[in-house]
Amino acid sequence: MKESRNVETDKCQLSKETLLKILDNSHDAIFATDGKGVTIYANKACEKYYGIKPKDVIGKDSWQFMEKVGCYPPTAPITLRSTDQHTLEQTTRTGAKMLVTNTPIYDADGNIELLVQNCRDVQELEDTKRDLEQTKELLARIQDEVVVLRKKELRNVKLMANSRQMKDLMQLVEKVAPTDVNILILGETGTGKSALAKNIHRISSRKDGPFISINCAAIPEELIESELFGYTGGAFTGALQKGKKGLIELANGGTLFLDEIAELPLRLQGKILEVIQERRFIPIGSCQVKEADCRIISATNRNIKQMIDLGTFREDLYYRLNVIEMELRPLRERPDDTMALIYYFLNQFNKKYKKKHSISPECRDILLAYSWPGNIRELENMIERLVVVVEDSVINVCHLPKVFSEAFSKRLQISEEDEPQTSGLDMAVTQLERKMIVEAFRKYGSSRKVAHALNISQSRAHRLIEKYCHNNDTI
After folding, report:
1. Is residue 100 a contact partner of residue 89, using CB atoms and an 8 Å limit?
2. Residue 239 vs residues 223, 232, 235: alpha-carbon distances, Å
3. What is the per-residue burial (b if ≥16 Cβ within 10 Å, else e) of 173-193?
4. What is the pLDDT of residues 353-392, one digit of tens each?
5. What confidence tens digit (pLDDT) does each residue in 82-134 have?
6. Beta strand 97-106 with 86-91: parallel, antiparallel or unpaired?
7. Strand order from edge to edge, sheet including 86-91
8. 2 pLDDT exceeds 80?
9. Residue 105: left if φ>0, alpha if ψ -120 to 50, beta else—which one?
10. What are the backbone angles phi and psi of residue 298, rounded to the nearest 5°?
11. CA–CA distance, 468 with 438 (Å, rounded to integer)
């Protein structure tokens, strides 16, 4: 066994050529003198800092060396006299400022056998230090900017509360937001669940902490666990070498918003339940338990109770998430909010695109009558489209997409079927009048243009439009 160990040691012995390659490729200048101060070695870096070649100083006394290269102070003689390690600053004839560390090596009798000098460029050290300080300042500035942007984003969250439903909901928000109670937000797609979650965080006791959001439906099932809980380096194939913090850890001290929580895989629901109950978690590939100091707000457009019956969602997790339930009603049930949102988005996009659009009363009424299956998101996109595309200063009915005229015609047809049937000339006149007014208004979008097209007074056109186009029973 001993012989084998010696063989391994012999294999690790470095040759003289290898040692010289290592020393000559050092970034720092390295000199070595014997116990009498005679230089016995100098690497190639001495050319850059001292303006000499190694062969010109090897065999020279250290005093002679200092005189030849014009260095001050003479560091080697100082160390040889004191026999202690010294670090001194030295100026060379090339103008370089060097930080020279002299390390004595002693023989068995305690005398200096060798003196090794390591010479490093002070300017490079100062540049590195300055770069490091600038990097720290940049990092601090970026962190400050992130905080400012995060607060700005939360301040820009707008929730229209003109309807009774929204006013009641906002009263509930004011009560529960300052607490750490978990909240489950229900509502159709596009009703503003994310905006409501941000608003809750903005007025909570955790408002100065992070607001971390994850859409459980947008991340592949095989990746969502690592996104939530993080992982250590090499935890799985493709993992970053340094590992990665999960969103739960990033939300520490703030709020974690789990959007589309119903899409969370069943196998991960138990781990989320543990985070809620125990306030701790373990990253993938780690044995270290980490604290989870974050408030959890979740949202879904699914019927979770039905999913519980089907066995696709854990009942115990549902009750942990649903301490407080908030429901955002669809836009078709909140016409008062729709009105406010129309003008809010119109003002926002007028400002964004430097426009001065207004909406005609006729166009506004059709927008209010539309069912908005995509809710607030669809309304926002529609107003932005109209502001960008319409060249006229007033947005009229004729500028609306085909889907609105089709919905208008369908509602008109239904209203006609519901009307009591009449007979004879009066019915025929009424139906013709309605048809002409509706078609003209759909085409021209204003009472003035309808009056001109049908050769009637504008007051009569306005009255007929009110009768056939603006009646709540016909739109």
Report:
1. yes
2. 11, 8, 6
3. beebbeeeebbbbbbbebbbb
4. 999 999 988 788 888 888 899 999 999 999 999 999 999 8
5. 666 778 787 777 777 888 888 888 888 888 888 888 888 888 778 888 888 87
6. antiparallel
7. 39-42, 29-34, 112-121, 97-106, 86-91
8. no
9. beta
10. -125, 160
11. 7
Token digits of residue 406: 């089709």
Q: Which two tokens stand for residue 373?
A: 């299956």
Domains delineated in the chain = 11-124 (3.30.450.20), 158-328 (3.40.50.300), 333-468 (1.10.8.60)
Q: What are phi and psi of 31, to 5 degrees?
A: -125, 155
Tell me which amino acid residue 251 is.
A
pTM: 0.60
User: 75 and 62 in contact (C-beta within 8 Å)?
Assistant: no
CA pair distance 351, 17, nearest whole angstrom: 73
Report the alpha-carbon distance of residue 396 to residue 409 in Å, rounded.
17
